[in-house]
Write a structure and sequence with these properties.
Strand order of the largest sheet: 1-10-9-8-11-3-2
Number of helices: 13
CATH architecture of the largest domain: 3-Layer(aba) Sandwich
Largest sheet: 7 strands, mixed
CATH topology of the largest domain: Rossmann fold
Order of helices and strands: EHEEHHEHEHEHEHEHEHHEHHEH
Strand content: 15-25%
Helix content: 40-55%
Structural class: alpha/beta
Radius of gyration: 18 Å
């Protein structure tokens, strides 16, 4: 299912300032890598390229936004330590950024987070506090939790975090100037909106689509309704890095005019994309990264050159092996 942008109604239009994106680009490589863009070794109706954010030091694009957000904190706030809420990837990004800054870090992590992500956060020096998905999502909305202290780093909503993510969009334009479409997983919206903001800042006309799993697709509902919506049928799945319970109003102010729409993929389509990327390019993608690839392969992005952002590769290896070796089912 593809849901395209028809109208944002009377929603305010928010933008990420171009100077903020340029400033982030100048500093982000103090912690992040400039990741490669490679062709998917697969003959299909479109030319599919993979932006390999899974090769970042933490295995996820989140290091871009996390480092930039921590860097931009006033020194007095940063010294008090930082905290965030995460299923695992933002947790690693903030933990690494905090370690580089020499400040303490606490993470409110979803209790169902993969062991690989929990272990990685602890290796980076982050103190983990587990909570239910509902409690974590509420903490994101409240920007507060009784167990947390220090400066809050929102894992997708704030300008500084999004500007850090936007650096990936600038790299795409440099490596593939004639790109027609970019597709990235949508959890909170910081990656897809950041990339779209970067393209807009450079005056590029490529479309940017969000990708969501069928079990958690509030953005598609929001586009259909013309206002930020929740997803009442939300269900946990192996696609843990995207697919939130709702679209935050401040993110809708970006998404409704920057994104071309949301492409909703079945779990089976995502699983097959995960296997295809492993077979053809020898790349490990977690569910969210494979969701973007599934959307790119769907034919719903239009013709031409399509970049799918493999946003992360942080998945328990046993789960990855089970998914990519499972027999195909009808989706």
């Amino acid at each position: 299912m593809a849901t395209n942008l028809a109208s944002g109604g009377n929603a305010a239009q928010r933008n990420i300032p171009a100077p903020l994106i340029d400033d982030a680009r100048r500093h982000v490589y103090e912690a992040a890598l400039r990741t490669p863009l490679v062709r998917l070794n697969y003959d299909g109706p479109s030319d599919i390229y993979l932006k390999l954010e899974c090769l970042q030091p933490i295995g996820s694009f989140k290091i871009r936004g996390a480092y930039n957000a921590v860097r931009l904190l006033p020194e007095e706030e940063r010294r008090r330590g930082v905290w965030t809420v995460s299923a695992g990837n933002a947790a690693q990004g903030v933990a690494l950024a905090a370690r580089k800054a020499g400040v303490p870090c606490k993470i409110l992590m979803i209790e169902e987070a993969p062991a690989a992500k929990l272990d990685a956060v602890r290796r980076l020096g982050g103190e983990v506090v587990k909570a239910s998905y509902d409690q974590c999502w509420q903490a994101l909305a409240d920007r507060a939790h009784p167990a947390m202290t220090g400066a809050f780093i929102h894992p997708f909503e704030d300008d500084g975090f999004i500007a850090g993510n936007a650096s990936a969009g600038l790299e795409i334009l440099e490596d593939l100037p004639d790109v027609d479409c970019v597709v990235a997983a949508f959890g909170g919206g910081g990656l897809s909106c950041g990339i779209a903001a970067a393209l807009k800042a450079r005056g590029h006309q490529a479309k940017v689509f969000a990708a969501e799993p069928e079990t958690a697709a509030p953005l598609a509902r929001s586009f259909a309704a013309g206002s930020p919506q929740s997803f009442p049928g939300w269900t946990a799945s192996f696609v843990d890095g995207c697919g939130g319970k709702s679209v935050f109003p401040r993110m809708w102010e970006l998404a409704h005019h920057l994104l071309a729409g949301s492409i909703v993929c079945t779990l089976e389509e995502i699983r097959k994309a995960m296997r295809l990327v492993a077979e053809r390019n020898r790349v490990i993608s977690e569910g969210a990264g494979a969701c973007a690839v599934a959307a790119g392969l769907s034919g719903k992005c239009g013709p031409g050159k399509i970049v799918c952002v493999v946003s992360g590769g942080n998945i328990d290896l046993a789960k990855f092996a089970e998914l990519v070796t499972r027999s195909d089912t009808t989706s």
